[in-house]
Design brief:
The protein has 136 residues and is α+β, with helices and mostly antiparallel strands. The chain contains three helices and five strands.
Length: 136
């Protein structure tokens, strides 16, 4: 197994989300690697947790990365959050991301969960993506 591609994958995913014009139009550049301190924007996207499993084979070291991308909005209802989540998905699914280390084999949506949080004031959609990578 190789965890060596993890940082390169994170940089590429963050770059793809930050550069997506549709997503930018919905969150005005509020794409974070970690939620910033202080007052948060009314809508934003944040990279989250990651789980990695070995997927090495006879051709070399590889891994399956499951990573979270969260959409958070203060708007009433889930409509705005779902529009943002769709833009995140459109930016990532089957994306041909260039990695500084290793190679992205595939990037797919795995599952998601929508919920009301903070006494129903906030809408949050947690999206989970699966990225298959090879190292070397």
């Amino acid at each position: 197994m190789s965890y060596g591609v993890s940082a390169a994958l994170q940089v590429a995913v963050f770059g793809a989300l930050s550069a997506d014009t549709v997503l930018d139009g919905l969150v005005a550049g509020a794409v974070f690697d970690a939620e910033p301190a202080g007052v948060l924007p009314a809508s934003y996207v944040s990279l989250g947790a990651e789980r990695v499993r070995d997927r090495s084979d006879a051709t070399g070291a590889g891994a399956l990365h499951e990573f979270d991308v969260s959409v958070v909005t203060e708007g009433d209802g889930f409509f705005a959050a779902k529009q943002i989540a769709a833009a995140v998905s459109d930016a990532l699914v089957d994306a041909e991301l260039a990695l500084s280390r290793g190679r992205l084999v595939s990037l797919q949506f795995y599952k998601g969960k929508a919920a009301k949080v903070e006494s129903g004031r906030i809408r949050r959609i947690d999206l989970i993506f699966r990225a298959r990578v090879q190292d070397g």
